[in-house]
Fold this sequence. Notes:
Elements: H1 6-25, E1 30-39, E2 44-48, E3 55-62, E4 68-74, E5 77-82, E6 87-91, E7 97-102, E8 108-114, E9 117-122, E10 133-138, E11 143-148, E12 154-160, E13 163-168, E14 175-179, E15 184-189, E16 197-202, E17 208-212, E18 217-221, E19 228-233, E20 240-242, E21 248-252, E22 255-260, E23 265-271, E24 278-284, H2 286-299
Antiparallel strand pairs: 1-2, 1-24, 2-3, 4-5, 5-6, 6-7, 8-9, 9-10, 10-11, 12-13, 13-14, 14-15, 16-17, 17-18, 18-19, 20-21, 21-22, 22-23
Amino acid sequence: MHMCTARCRAAALLFGVVTILCATFTPAVVCAQFLMMPDSTNNRLVLFDPNNGALVNSNFFGLAAGTPVHALQVGNEIWVSEQIGDRISRWDFNGSQLAPISGGMDNIRGMTLLGNNVLLTNSGTGNGAPGRAVIRFDTAGNNLGFFPTPASSGFDILPHLGDLLVSSDTANDDVHRYSTAGASLGTFHNSTALNFGEQMDHAPNGDVLVAGFSTNNIARLDPNTGALIGSTPASGARGLWVLGNGNFLWTNGSGAHVFDVTTQTSAQVYTGGGRFIDALVIPEPASGAVLLGSMVTLLGIRRKRA
């Protein structure tokens, strides 16, 4: 039986909103749906087809040179975490840079949109940052504080069964579970089969998928126990997204690749510095974008599955 998780339902809502906008306003509103990925080698935002992972635009717009890791749609803006830049840069859909969010961050990586909050993984203590922690922002960019993650030098945050999973590069704690309030609920997974966990996603049946950077794989974990179910080869895996056709789009330092679940093989679709993957929906004209932004904020939509 196909199991649609909370993040899956969020994606359905996001793309459903777009469908309604298109149906209601066409031809005044033209809607475009993509997956987006920062290229941290060439400092640009790259777009892919959300159904099959095909490259759509190798240079949607340029990014700042702060090692961009994760691009997240927040209303009608695109927020980009900069790992070395120690800030979140903000952009409109035309690639114009808006005022960045800065201060209190150091060595930042993945993000998630949870309700009206953006959650960000932080590891360092420079710039007044809290060290190993998840920092909260509202969708206007105001810092709402943090909760500590001492067991996790976090890389990604995955809403999961009412809680949060935080992947990390920390030995003996590959994926840790926290409540949405920030209470530690213990190690979700730790084994030699997964090391240096980066981006996570849910398989269509609800299993947890984790990109293993050091173990060169995509690990499949039991959604309830965190036990290892299986592993897919993926050299130096960083980003991960389950496509509409059931295959995986995954990234590493050499670019982006599509893993075919039928043939069990990967094909490279983009060359560059691959990072995390997320959804992007752009309605035009601007009135449609504003309406979508309101809906995204209202629904608390993050990437595909939660």
